[in-house]
Amino acid sequence: MKDTCVNLQIEQYYNLTYTIVSLIFLSPFVGYTASALMNNYLHKSVGQRGVGGIASVCHLLAYIIVSFNCLFVWVGNVSTRRKQHQ
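Now predict its structure.
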């Protein structure tokens, strides 16, 4: 499945603009950059087991947030309200 097809489905389902949907797919770049910058510091301060624990907690938190679908619902509601006020 192509990215444009997924973008179109998300745009229609959540009533979002193409720009917002593109930012959703570009946002992992921020996470990868932050983790790359913090990697050496964390290994020196908490060790390999500490980094493993932090990674596990981060994965768990991300899956909990995604399972409640809060972020996309919130973005969709904000986008819809902006269009109604214009």
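The helical segments are 3-14, 18-26, 28-68, 70-85.
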